[in-house]
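Justification of computing resources. Each target in the renewal requires a structure prediction run like the one illustrated here; the chain below, 613 residues long, is used simply to show the kind of job we budget for.
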Amino acid sequence: MIQKVTLSPVSVKKQAAKSNGITMPTRSQNVNFEGVKTQASKLASAYQALNGIKTAKTVNFAGTKELSDFEKSIITPKEIRIPNLLDITENVDLPLKKMPEGFEKFNAAGLNVTKETEGTRDKITVSNDRGHVIFIGRVEQGLNKKPIVTYKQGKFMPEVTIKDSSLDGKVIKMFAGSELIGDGFEFKMPGSYETLLDGSSRDISFTGRTVITTLNKEPRTINAVDSYIASGLQKEAIRGDYADVVEANDPTIVIPAGGFGERFFNITREDENKPSAKLPTDDRYRIIGTTLNLAASAGILTGEDTDDVKYLSQNHEIEEGDGVYYASKYKTDGGAISEGLRRDIIPNDRDTIILNADIFTNADISRAYNALKTLPNAALVIPYYPVNPQRAKSFGLLGIEQDENGNLQIKEFLEKPKYTSDAPMPNDFVTPGDYDKAMREYNRVQSAVDPKDENKFLANPGLYFLSKEAQKVLIAQGILTPNETGLGANTMPKIVQLANEGKLLDKNGNKMKVYTVPLEAKGGKPAVWDDIGTAEAYLKLIKDVANEVRLHGTTSDNKYYGLPEFVLQDFANNTDLETGVVFDSQRARQAVAEFAQKYELNTMRGNMFVVGK
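Resulting structure tokens:
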């Protein structure tokens, strides 16, 4: 029996110093920009400050069809880059405006940088055109020894990175709610951070955008998988409750790893995509390792010669052959998977389990698969994860209805609803019909309330269990087509719709159904699940794991029990819960110790990540 895991589509290409208790500003501040008389002079000052060029140039962005080489050295389609904030000599004021074709993503929130004098110190303030302060730096005038502070502003995030020779190739990433104070300088990212070591929940508030676009790199994904396979970690996986059911039916696990990592650039850097990005462990276990561990726990990856890993490449940056198959270029996950099923690269005579590549969970997927095999006429099972009303606005929700047996059938997908627990108010609307439309959305969302907890909603965690009977029908009817826009956005909602319209029939003419069940860990405990979509989610997750290890070790009392023990231990060892700083390795800790000694660091705390090659 050959077990199969298909990745589709593969995308390419010393201790830290203790903290002083300094209270961070939590409100936006307005910044007054003086001395700039015209829009042309504002832009000229920006270019001159960023490049040290004495002869400034101007550009009418709204009317420009193409940027010159000079302008492209400062502005890219995704961001504006300031190589060193501490070298700024003039104010920069780039408000939000329409950009030329191909550059629409640039500067979504504007960019303002000012330099002024406070006593014997220079004060550099970065804000957006709405007055929200992103960064404040104070540096003693004439200070010779100082780190390099780089800044990037793009569609998704502001990024502040501290570089210095003492960091041995590592860099310090600052996020909202962090501060770094040394001899002669202070760097702050406004926001809030609470250090809680008493076992209560950690409340971390990030303000502003914290993410940016990056590109894919297929070889990195393959290297990450190969490292996991070669490590033998799959043999250490905790066996799922229904792993025997999985083994008996031999389903295919498909792992879409084709995202562009748009919200994870701060962590991945330019040389990686998100699935291959480094967790604060050694190179054996990267982000995609969590998903591979789910497959191992379910009995699909065993570490034996029967393991069969295929790659469905949509960017064609790896050589076809020997387990690598080319799909049509630039298709979405849903399209590439549909093509794989049609061509029998993904076997269409077996059940298919689709697992996201960028999640962190201790779920026992064998339990959801067992539901697929035991619920009446099940075509599709999508586990649900309960979330609070505020968080529900960021997820696709599952609208449900209980059948006569008490099973939860999915009736519709509700994508990122605006109204959850708070009904819209009539006086918030001026356009006729808008209030009625909002109320219809609100009422639909109530079908996604958790039947076990009326204060929670049923979120779609992106794990799909599709029966072989259903996929054969979908292929035969031309429903699973490569033109679909995506799994969660199009393919799965269409399956739900067809089932509820009674148009999804098995070979005997019986109506197939779609169900949801709780996402559970081994033993039926509620699973812990996180979408590692942003730097914010990533850091909160690591700190929460570290706190769980501090409280419960790696025993079954730890809510993350089910993940590899060394992963939990490494997260704890590479996190300073007192200061909030996360390190990507022990070498990063040592590098910060050198940095702290060089600059007589007395404060390093909040939402910071020390990362590098």
